[in-house]
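Standup notes
- HV: blocked on the assembly model, inputs below
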Amino acid sequence: MRRPSLSTALLWPALLVMVPLLLGPLLLLAHESLKPFVGGRIGGDESGALTLQNYAQIADPQYVRYFLDTFRVGLLATAFALVLGFPVAHFIVRRAGPTMRRLMVGGLVGTLFLSIIVRVYAIAMTFGPHGPLSDFSRLFGISASSPDGAELMVVLGLLNSTLPLVALTLIGTLQNINPRLEDAALSLGAPRWKTFFQITVAMSLPGILSAAIIAYAFCISNLVVPMLVGRGFIVFVSNLIYFRFSEVANFPSGAALSMVMMVISVALFYGLLSLVRSHWQEAGK
Amino acid sequence: MIQSVLDLQHVTKRFGDTAAVDNVTFEVARGEIVALLGPSGCGKTTTLRMIAGFEQPDEGRIFISGVDVARKAPYERNVGLVFQDYALFPHMSVAQNIAFGMKNRGVPARDIAPRIARVLEQVRLPGIEGRRPSQLSGGQQQRVALARALVTRPDVMLLDEPLSNLDAKLRLELRHEIRAILATFDCTSIIVTHDQEEAMGLADRIVLMNKGRIEQVDTPVGLYQRPQTLFAADFIGHANWISGTLARRAAEAGVVETKVGGIAVAPGAVADGPVTLCIRPERLAIVAADAPADTRLAAVVERLDPVGADLRIWSRLGDGTLVQSLEKNVGRALPAPGVGVTLGFKVADCIVLPADGAAR
Amino acid sequence: MKRFADALFQTAYLSLVTLFVAFSVIPVVVAVVLSFDARGFVGPFPPTQFSLRWYDRFLADSYYHDGLVTSLVLATSATFIATVVGALAAIGLHHATFRGKGLIQAALLSPLVIPNVVLGFGVLIFASRLGILDGMTRLMMGHVLITFPYVMRTTAASLVGIRASYYEAALSLGAKPLGALWQVTLPLARTGIIAGAVFGFVTSFDDVGVSLFLTDAFTFTLPVAILAQMRANLDLTIAALSVMFIVATVLIIVILDRVAGLDAITGRGVYGR
């Protein structure tokens, strides 16, 4: 028996709290982004006519670069996270005993819970100039002090956050794949590596893509990692928005950047996710 | 007139364009156990959910003890429900589970503990008040679920596939036990099941449903011996089918012309025209060529399947129709495959059904 | 040939798992070791002498202390509001049948996807338009916004695992819908709600993106305080502080495992062992 009145009643507190908190800021941001910027004051010009100049400014190659950097570095971190995260999730689901599983899941959740500042600090100390792994960047033929070195550090910082995210998501996926299918493939004469790729990975594809989307959404909206280890060489759009607010108090420009970034994030997330879902529902999975 | 405790009148429920339950009407008398039987998707579960109050009928009325409850919420009806998965609250003890309904129905606090003890005795699980549902076996959970529903003395008990989650042996044991428990409480009950054996073994009467409609309402024996539709004859037990054309004068014995010759049939309500004859395997026998039998058909034995104490003999009639007959496996000499035999049956054992049914 | 390929695969597989573990553990170990470094500067690893000087410095610093108090008060109250409102909303949506249910759900979860910086910036403008200049109130607005979706999502996930028949059984036993929710659905969703609240708390406590916009000179969260200090001077007080964070995180994980079980987060899966 579904009583519509009750379920609506339970929703009301959330709607009363969340709708103003969500819509108010976003509508005001949209409005702010259309105001002309007048130097020397906080907030856009109230009296002036609305303008699209703040958006036009973003199309400038100089700005587009920040967007491209954000998307490229985010993609790198996501790709590494998948390559490392999938075997770990597989290991936890299929091979680890109860204690090992508990320990590793605890470690993953702990990493996720640990303050991102602390994690990035620890990475900076480990891979930084005095750290025990300061030579790590040389493996890639990169000098630690170069812009590429900064990019590597940002990738490592993001990776540390996305890894538990990806691994935990994939644990959920792999748990729902029948282990007998892997056994069946092996009994049909497929070697382990083939079984792994043709059965396990292939069947996890929707989960892998979901994990990738979640990780990517996290990466491209990140602020702390580029701020702490980007050394100005790597600046994400989030940093740019914060910079507009804190350093130059250009609210309209920051608002326009925010609107663009929000639209991209939301569209990427829900667009890709629904694409993944509809594709795999059609295929009958 | 028998007082009916439950009375469904022209109940219809649609989901989108399809009618899950279509103009269903039946009554249940006090103390009676009625089974709603049918294949999955026949509307039996929807009917049960409407009686319980989880769905509301689009048309028709549902009376419980003379009150129309069709628009009432589940908690406004005095109906006991045993779920297919038992739905024992996992975070509560057995006693808390059983007390739940009594508390909500305003049983005085001092009566609750004695009534729990008593009902647990009645379902033959005394002293398990403190256990958690997860500590009970499937059969025990089933009986606790029964106790939880029965303890508030509902007007009607509803049991949704009560035995489907148990293994075959336990199922048989519990079938008798459920019957005994329901009899103890003299409780008017509806049992939803897709298992004909369960329905036959538990119910006084069976409501056979198909595609949202009632096919037939009858006693278990009546349903088996006097099916009124092809579906009913096909769904309950095994059957041999011979199609033909009935020609006779009204209400008199007639003859059905078939590909294997004319077959005499008893007087009945079925109109002249195309019909299907149904003969139960145990009513079809291999007979000596000169033995007395109302109807004889020539056939060739094809295969012998032992089924426990019986032997199922598959033979082919002259037109190629495969028929089965059941013989007691008592050491008599049996025909070998390929041997020609005569199959005989009585006029009374040949059921005439209108041919335009959905089955077959 | 097959065996060789398999051995190669096995090696690659285990190396990746090892690499993962190493990458996750080594920085933590480095931070812990450095926090006991006796040197007054950031020197080559490993330290040659050990002391507790950075812990003394961090404990004596009222700046961190103020930030910690603010963060605790903020995370606790924001989580409380988000948990009450978010769990109710999840249950309401779970039972809802009306059109547009999916849209409402997506909208309520959207703060998970919108960059925190955007949310922080937006709340700042919104609060100033409403005339709210008090740091704590502004922070509370932002933090309820970001913790709510975690509670709602986790509660919703745990509701999926609760069979509908429990709720219906309660109704058939005479419970009214609200009573059935309170006595049956809510206790069964308990672990999910607790896990969601823990996630919400941690999200609030660790947040930087939203808080950076909403703090003022007197009300700042611990992460914002650390960030300010890090940019001022990169000494090892932060390492000592990191160890505090690590200890606190381990405690949270142990408590979470005891109360809700870590399986509440990952689930057991259809083929769970």
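- HV (later): unblocked. Chain C has 13 helices and no strands. The CA atoms of residues 154 and 196 of chain C lie 5 Å apart.
- Next: hand off to the docking folks.
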